Amino acid sequence: MVAELEILTDAMSNLPVNVEQVIEDLGIQYFNEPMDKGQSGAIELKDGNYTIRVNSLEPRQRQRFTAAHELAHYLLHREMLVKQGRLARHSDSLYDEHAQKNVAVPFNPHHEVEANKLAAEIIMPRQQIERLYDPAKDNFEEMAKQLGVSKSALVIRLKILGLLPNSKPAQPDL
Ligand SMILES: [Zn+2]
User: Fold this and answer.
1) Among 23, 54, 72, 159, which has the minimal tally of Cβ within 10 Å of its Cβ?
2) If phi over 0 gives left and psi between -120 and 50 gives alpha, with beta otherwise, what is residue 162?
3) What domain count does the chain have?
4) Is the same domain home to 21 and 46?
5) pTM for this model (two decimals)
6) C-alpha dihedral over 104, 93, 52, 86, to 10 degrees?
7) If you measure from the C-alpha of residue 93 to the centroid of ligand 1, how many angstroms do you get, rounded to a whole number?
């Protein structure tokens, strides 16, 4: 577990965080391959081996988040896959209208929220954001580029970290 954390924290100190490399360094098989429309990725345990798949047909930034989501399941919930027995598989539909229909089996919606939170922390590490963020500058475009995420994903992350107000109240002109 210590070695796992080391691999992860090392990767998180270099932007953009190379999630696919972390997955491979942890000894998980990784496949970036075409999948059905709406399917984002999957994690599977078969005969003691873990495999993560990411849909290569989705935009690159989504692929990175999906990879981080599956990695988060591995780090947080793999025991639940083990309990499923010889063949255990979790499939994710994470975006747009498909996200509403994500079937969390063998996890539950709470585990999906946990995986999304850790995925955001992996690709947009708090430490890195705090280093890059300058309230005096509108450098979100540049930050998003460095992190390898979309600007909208970054803005959500900044709000969650409390660096941006959740909603902008109308400012009186003083
Ligand atoms: Zn999931």
Assistant:
1) 159
2) left
3) 2
4) yes
5) 0.90
6) 40
7) 8
